Amino acid sequence: MPLRVYNTLTRQKEEFQTVEPGKVRMYVCGPTVYKPSHIGHMVGPVIFDTVKRFLTYLGYQVTWVVNITDVDDKLIVRARELGTTVKELAERMTADYLDCLKKLNVTGIDYMPRATEHIPEMIEIMRGLIAKGHAYASGGDVYFDVTSDPDYGKLCNRDPDQLEAGARIEVSDKKRNPGDFALWKASRPGEPSWDSPWGPGRPGWHIECSAMSMKLLGQTLDIHGGGLDLQFPHHENELAQSESYTGQPFVRYWMHNGLLKMGQTKMAGSIGNVVNIADLLEKHSAETVRLLLLSTHYRSPIEYSDERLAEVGRSLGHFYRFFERYQRICGRSFYELAAPTRHAPFDTGSPPSAFLNEVSRLRSTFLDCLSDDFNTGGAIGALYELLTALNRFADARQLEEPARREDAVAEFERGVRVLRELSSLLGLFHQPPESGGGDALVNQLMQLLIDLRAEARKAKNYAMADQIRQRLGQLGIILEDRPGGTGWRRG
RNA sequence: GGCCCCUUCGCCAAGUGGUAAGGCAACUGAUUGCAAAUCAGUCAUACCCCGGUUCGAAUCCGGGAGGGGCCUCCA
């Protein structure tokens, strides 16, 4: 099934065609680093990380850029509040952001350019825009003239004349039109500033993305992503200034992810209803968060709640228990299995077994879902079905019994490798969950209790055996009696 | 006021013209000394409402109701 991507510009799914065959240039708007990251900041990175994984799997060479906005009004205000410099604050919050990305297994970002390191490139673009009559200097500022671009508003269906009617636009007598936006802002005393042909100042919000994407990826991007809330004005303005400057199409596919909601309204720093990643990860694993973000289609909003996270955590438990089962059956850790990095047809063997046919079918379903505008929710459904099929096979062929057949184990192994392959595309299960077992002493003590209980059961002293299990239960430990002996886990 | 989008089982959620995936919860059975885990089965005659198009619609069109996003910084 060919890959299809929903394009905000055309409001429909389109077959994916890159500018240069085999290569994908992807740019996603990153954070303004003035506060610790909240979960909303992770929606885009997790989604586009998955997009990159899948594109790479399909054979594309993907270059992914996420910018860091390290100069801005909010940074200036916040640094002043904290009695520190913009630079120091930006560095600290960038480190926090990177840490969050790492925890959520977002590994695919190739470049993270800083706005402050690309001032000359921005100045170059502004010069060009002024020369072409698309921008003008005014009182130390530089503005983009929206009336100079007949296409202005095409991304969001905005008419510049109607913008005039909106009373919320900042009125400034430096602007020619109310919809004009600042490319460059003259700096006030005490603010970070850079020299420019128009005097000391700092960049406006939108120009950095044009400058950095152009520098690192060229004039036409294959994918430009970001939150739905960035469509206007940010992406509209980026689009206008970039195309006015280069005369080339700026982006082939605009992809916008839905926003995370707290109750009925979106989570946002400006509203103040944010949940920091650091706080969140004390209650729920990073993998739970990642799965939550991927379980809904990326264009839909996701409602954040503790209950929802707990629910996702419970469903993850099925996978974790299966991985332990796999370890028991095959004597190998699931996490150490190598996942194929490129797509290849699945060989069901000959004659194909019913089991491997089922595995193959589910693999196709999974891949078809991702090919249809990165439908991770549908793909995850197939992943659960695959899990059930694997457990069913292990049950039916009694793979945990000593008398099992080795050819059945080999067949099972092939099915498990598909689970490894597919879950890797979602960035799941790259390492064992944090709170699996215990330290060496705990393991020894648990073995002692399990042995004592086994003796009690052997002597048919079920009252004692059940008491041991029940009291462990009160400590949050669940015992599982299996064919090969008793195992335990934290509930 | 303008521009987008959404509404599917108790909850989450996939599905974009061919007769409703999956997860959580619940219930029943197999298994177990009893549990846990796993498996099996049950769980939406039905997709916000009303019209229309069609042999056929959750899926397309029109209208209505409810909810959300953007038009100001926001991932």
Can you walk through the features of this model?
The structure is a single chain. The chain has 491 residues and is α/β, with parallel strands linked by helices. It folds into three domains: 4-304, Rossmann fold (3-Layer(aba) Sandwich), CATH 3.40.50.620; 306-425, no CATH class; 440-490, no CATH class. Helix content is 46%, strand content 14%. The protein contains 15 helices and 15 strands. The protein has helices at 40-57, 73-82, 86-103, 119-131, 160-165, 207-217, 231-246, 277-283, 286-295, 306-330, 354-371, 376-396, 406-425, 440-458, 462-474; strands at 4-7, 12-15, 23-28, 61-66, 135-138, 141-144, 181-186, 201-203, 221-227, 251-257, 260-262, 265-266, 302-304, 477-482, 485-490. Strand 5 (135-138) and strand 6 (141-144) form a beta hairpin.
Low-confidence stretches: none
Number of strands: 15
Main sheet makeup: 4 strands, parallel
Q: Which structural category do the helix and sheet elements fall into?
A: alpha/beta
Shape: elongated
Count of separate structural domains: 3
Return the CATH class of the largest domain.
Answer: Alpha Beta
Q: Under CATH, the topology of the largest domain is which?
A: Rossmann fold
Question: Can you say what the CATH homologous superfamily of the largest domain is?
Answer: HUPs
Approximate helicity band: 40-55%
Rg over CA atoms: 27 Å
Give the strand order of the largest sheet, numbering strands 1, 2, ... along the chain. 4-3-9-10
What is the level-2 CATH architecture name of the largest domain? Answer: 3-Layer(aba) Sandwich
Overall pLDDT level: 94
Question: What count of helical segments does DSSP give?
Answer: 15
Roughly how many Å apart are the termini? 41 Å
User: Secondary-structure element sequence?
Assistant: EEEHEHHHEEHEEHEHEEEHHEHHHHHHEE
- Strand % is 5-15%
